[in-house]
């Protein structure tokens, strides 16, 4: 006889298995798998194209970058050929082009960034230049005559208005070099040293690198020096001859405005299609050359106008952000090195970014031969120093690296002047800067998509040891990493790519901030900062992400300005000026590449680096836009990283590069920390360890920020917050226990009372087991929207938090159920809960009242809440819950009163962090400065002698190679 129960059981088990397989293959959802399949198919097509192109390139003998797995173990560097072919991925690919570009965003974001701003006009147009000079002379004469209402102001006019008499007065340095007093007196002491150093280099006709940290006034030092030359009637040009300054597109007009202010008599023209010159650009070059003026070009401009430029011999060639020629193989590097001039200068705050090869390229421009031939330098210097930097280096390798790094430092020191902000702090008195790395949790959707893609065919093909998928491995790695980074930023960046062309984008849902862990953090930060009166810069690598952020800012009605490649080069400086001058703008939103280099954005005192770059210098440059001369308020920088993902690996890689760079530029004894990463490691999703730390946080444990223990913290806020957290945890545990009990009770109860049919009963049991009551983690958001006069911090008791922020009224239902289904024998519900911080709920069947071991106050609140629930009273916020507005505080109308003490940056930051931790949006925070500046002086004497010998050999080899 067939046992009907057994049959049903097996059928149910089968059905369950099928449905599980269908919905969650390999632990990811169907949606995730479908998206990964779509994307992988497209990517395969792309690889085929790249592979084809590489074959063609090989045939035509174009410069090739070698591809092998060991390369990728250390860095997934990018080849130009790949960049050209991966249109969709160009956001994350280094590029020189900062000119107009298209948006890759499906949203139509109305651009409020296009403010009507006045354009800076260069001296390309001769009549305009003559007019400007006339006005300046007139104003100067008026100022000398005592009129103090002249406009526009230049440095010399201001000097007169400040009570000085003679604008022509000069300060004389050695060998008759003259610098006008109106500039000299304005320079900080270290800047004067810079001008003297430039003059020394000039006299021996040597090139040099001015490498002061970002924001210390390199531009002013160069302008002061050139002004001095123009006043010193000596040399082959009898003063200053025609000169070229090459600069990133975003800052060429910044140069114009600085020249007009500091050195109004010089003619400064922009050779770019946005410049004021009309007619033939050859004529402009001729005019500027004849008038001993300054010609400003972008790096792309060098390629465009190289024939006109190379046809002449120039007095000075200055490369602003000269690290742009760090790759010796690019066309622009090669062309720049061919321009005829005896005086070459590089200005950059990031002279060494990725590898020592870059240093070689910079010196090859400004001091050819100093570092020998490329091959000799790489073998005798770059390789041993890099090797010694890895965590798995032998003691011998470390000692050798140390000595060679010292030798290299000695060689380059005379031609490189670099001062850090710390060194000159006594002069410039910069406010404090606090820099933190926030490890943000992925949302459930992001995690699902991330894992789905990791299991997809693109990643499988990369990790396949036999590599049966064929070349190009590098292209596949790059594309896969880029895809993962998109998921980390926002799921829609990935899903949009995965969908079919004909599918419509739902503009309401697309890019919603709640679907991205990092955007949720941005949302909290901006709310808090707006209340605290801070203003923020937000940098992201990708234009599509910029678009999503812009849409978010518009939805939230924040005032912002936006700058990316689509903003005309001629308008960028004005946009920056508008932001600095108008405090009503809360946010300046920019792509790291366009807005992160060379510009002054001191209007902001908060910076968010939304996504990390492989190259730490890119992020460093961006964050320094706010923390520079001219900044009066303390600056806080947050780098956002998705915990456990590729972004953590990028950050670790950044730290390694910092060590490498510091070894040469600062301290050869820099300690190494990281091992080389593997492909396997890049394509994984790390879970936090047993202590809840992310991989990086556990590596740099000593720099971890413990909000509750932080010294500067406002004690009250923290202890209160700590209390909330503990109680929240306790409440969560309690909720779990109650829920468990309810399901048990209800099963038992129904078993006894209702159920007759064994098949129905079995099915019901299975359903409960398959779909246990969902324990919603109470999501909290401590930031309020509405206003009352109740102090913000005092409003939220722990019960309020639970009651206010739970989803779908879970807790209310839960308590109601408990009241209905209490078990007299069950006293202590949860053994895990510690007596000190918990509410051991005793359930009294007869009275059906929940009592707890809270203090009286809490008890009252609790009872009041329960009574309210019983009476069917709902809090005001429930109406919003009904509208399914999750994550928003809707409870009480609260006005955040900003305490004076909170205005101090330190406590502000701690306050902000405590909020972020409380919401569990941030898993860990590290003090970035400490991580990077970790320079334990580990002297390794044992092998010193041998290492020194190797270093001497290296220097000898280098000298030999350059003769
Ligand atoms: N001596 C000075 N007097 C007044 N302002 C100064 C002085 N030196 C620098 N500044 C101001 O400091 C800011 C930073 O200067 P600048 O842009 O030249 O820095 P930088 O070193 O070139 O930075 P970056 O490497 O980021 O390009 C500018 O706003 C500049 O006007």
TrEMBL record:
Key words, A-Z: Cell cycle, Cell division, Hydrolase, Meiosis, Mitosis
InterPro entries: Helicase_ATP-bd, Helicase_C-like, P-loop_NTPase, SNF2-like_sf, SNF2/RAD54-like_C, SNF2_N, SNF2_RAD54_helicase_repair
The Helicase C-terminal domain, residue ranges: 521-674
Role noted for this protein: Involved in mitotic DNA repair and meiotic recombination. Functions in the recombinational DNA repair pathway. Essential for interhomolog gene conversion (GC), but may have a less important role in intersister GC than spn-A/Rad51. In the presence of DNA, spn-A/Rad51 enhances the ATPase activity of okr/Rad54.
Biased composition (Basic and acidic residues): 51-60, 938-956
Region named Disordered: 50-96, 938-963
UniProt xrefs under SUPFAM superfamilies: P-loop containing nucleoside triphosphate hydrolases
UniProt-recorded name of the protein: DNA repair and recombination protein RAD54-like
GO cellular component: nucleus
UniProt feature, compositional bias: Acidic residues: 85-96
Domain Helicase ATP-binding, residue spans: 199-369
PROSITE patterns (alphabetical): HELICASE_ATP_BIND_1, HELICASE_CTER
Domain of life assignment: Eukaryota
Coiled-coil ranges per UniProt: none
Oligomer status and interactors: Interacts (via N-terminus) with spn-A/Rad51.
SMART domains: DEXDc (SM00487), HELICc (SM00490)
GO annotation terms (biological process): cell division; meiotic cell cycle; transcription-coupled nucleotide-excision repair
MF GO annotations: ATP binding; ATP-dependent activity, acting on DNA; hydrolase activity
UniProt xrefs under Pfam families: Helicase_C, SNF2-rel_dom
């Amino acid at each position: 006889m067939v046992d009907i129960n057994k049959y049903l059981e097996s059928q149910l088990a089968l059905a369950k298995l099928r449905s599980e397989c269908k919905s969650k293959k390999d632990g990811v959802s169907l949606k995730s798998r479908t998206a990964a399949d779509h994307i992988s198919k497209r990517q395969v097509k792309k690889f085929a194209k790249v592979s084809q192109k590489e074959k063609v390139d090989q045939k035509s003998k174009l410069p090739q970058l070698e591809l092998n797995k060991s390369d990728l173990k250390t860095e997934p560097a990018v080849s130009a050929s790949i960049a050209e072919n991966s249109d969709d991925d160009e956001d994350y690919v280094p590029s020189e082009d900062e000119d107009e570009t298209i948006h890759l965003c499906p949203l139509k974001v109305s651009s409020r960034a296009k403010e009507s701003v006045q354009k800076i006009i260069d001296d390309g147009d001769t009549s305009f230049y003559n007019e400007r000079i006339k006005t300046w002379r007139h104003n100067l004469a008026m100022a000398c005559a005592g009129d103090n209402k002249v406009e526009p102001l230049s440095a010399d006019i201001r000097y007169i208005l400040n009570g000085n008499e003679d604008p022509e007065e000069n300060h004389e340095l050695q060998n008759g070099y003259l610098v006008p007093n109106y500039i000299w007196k304005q320079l900080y002491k270290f800047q004067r040293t810079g001008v003297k150093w430039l003059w020394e280099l000039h006299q021996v006709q040597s090139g040099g690198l001015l490498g002061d940290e970002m924001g210390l006034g390199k531009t002013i030092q160069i302008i002061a020096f050139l002004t001095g030359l123009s006043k010193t009637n000596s040399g082959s040009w009898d003063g200053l001859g025609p000169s070229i300054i090459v600069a990133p597109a975003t800052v060429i007009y910044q140069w114009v405005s600085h020249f007009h202010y500091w050195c109004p008599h010089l003619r400064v023209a922009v050779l770019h299609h946005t410049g004021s010159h009309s007619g033939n650009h050859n004529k402009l070059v001729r005019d500027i050359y004849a008038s001993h003026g300054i010609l400003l070009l972008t790096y792309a401009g060098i390629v465009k106008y190289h024939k006109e430029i190379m046809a002449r011999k120039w007095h000075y060639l200055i490369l602003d952000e000269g690290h742009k020629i760090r790759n010796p193989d690019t066309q622009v590097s090669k062309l720049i090195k061919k321009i005829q001039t005896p005086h070459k200068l590089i200005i950059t705050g990031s002279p060494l970014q990725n590898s020592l090869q870059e240093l070689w390229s910079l010196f090859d421009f400004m001091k050819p031969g100093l570092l020998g031939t490329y091959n000799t330098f790489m073998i005798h210097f770059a390789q041993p120093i890099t090797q010694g930097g890895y965590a798995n280096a032998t003691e011998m390798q470390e000692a050798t690296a140390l000595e060679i790094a010292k030798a290299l430092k000695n060689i380059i020191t005379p031609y490189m002047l670099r001062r850090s902000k710390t060194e000159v702090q006594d002069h410039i008195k910069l406010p404090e800067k606090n820099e933190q790395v926030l490890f943000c949790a992925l949302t459930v959707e992001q995690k699902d998509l991330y894992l789905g893609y990791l299991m997809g065919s693109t990643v499988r093909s990369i990790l396949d040891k036999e590599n049966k998928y064929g070349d190009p491995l590098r292209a596949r790695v790059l594309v896969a990493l880029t895809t993962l980074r998109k998921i980390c930023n926002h799921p829609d960046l990935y899903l949009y790519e995965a969908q079919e062309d004909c599918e419509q984008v739902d503009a309401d849902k697309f890019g919603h901030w709640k679907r991205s862990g990092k955007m949720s953090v941005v949302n909290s930060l901006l709310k808090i900062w707006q209340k605290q009166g801070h203003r923020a810069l937000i940098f992201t690598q990708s234009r599509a992400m910029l678009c999503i952020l812009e849409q978010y800012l518009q939805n939230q009605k924040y005032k912002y300005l936006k700058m990316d490649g689509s903003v005309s080069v001629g308008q960028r400086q004005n946009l920056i000026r508008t932001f600095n001058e108008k405090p009503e703008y809360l946010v300046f939103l920019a792509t790291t590449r366009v807005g992160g280099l060379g510009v002054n954005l001191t209007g902001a005192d908060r910076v968010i680096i939304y996504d990390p770059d492989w190259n730490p210098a890119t992020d460093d440059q961006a964050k320094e836009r706010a923390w520079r001369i001219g900044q009066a308020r303390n600056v806080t920088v947050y780098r956002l990283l998705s915990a456990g993902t590729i972004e953590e690996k990028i950050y670790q890689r950044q730290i390694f590069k910092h060590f490498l760079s510091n070894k040469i530029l600062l301290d050869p004894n820099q300690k190494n920390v990281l091992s080389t990463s593997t492909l396997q490691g890049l394509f994984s999703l790390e879970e936090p360890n047993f202590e809840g730390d992310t991989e990086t946080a556990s590596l740099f444990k000593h720099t971890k920020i413990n909000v509750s223990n932080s010294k500067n913290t406002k004690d009250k806020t923290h202890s209160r917050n700590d209390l909330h957290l503990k109680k929240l945890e306790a409440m969560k545990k309690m909720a779990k226990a109650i829920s468990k009990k309810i399901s048990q009770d209800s099963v038992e109860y129904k078993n006894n009372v209702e159920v007759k049919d064994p098949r129905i009963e079995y099915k019901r049991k299975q359903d409960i087991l398959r779909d246990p009551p969902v324990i919603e983690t109470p999501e909290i958001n401590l930031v309020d929207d509405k206003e009352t006069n109740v102090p913000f911090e005092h409003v939220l008791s722990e019960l309020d938090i639970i009651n206010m922020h739970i989803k779908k009224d879970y807790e209310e239902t839960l308590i109601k159920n408990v009241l209905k289904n209490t078990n007299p024998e069950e006293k202590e519900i949860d053994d895990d809960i510690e007596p000190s911080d918990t509410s051991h709920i005793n359930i009294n069947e007869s009275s059906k009242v929940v009592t707890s071991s809270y203090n009286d106050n809490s008890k009252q609140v609790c009872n009041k809440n329960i009574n309210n629930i019983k009476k069917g009273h709902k809090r005001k916020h429930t109406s919003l819950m009904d509208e399914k507005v999750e994550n928003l505080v809707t409870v009480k109308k609260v006005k955040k009163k900003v305490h004076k003490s909170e205005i101090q940056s330190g406590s502000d930051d701690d306050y902000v962090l405590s909020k972020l931790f409380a919401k569990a949006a941030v898993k860990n925070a590290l003090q970035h400065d400490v991580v990077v500046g970790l320079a334990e002086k580990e002297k390794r004497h044992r092998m010193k002698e041998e290492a020194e010998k190797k270093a001497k050999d290296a220097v000898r080899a280098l000298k030999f190679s350059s003769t």
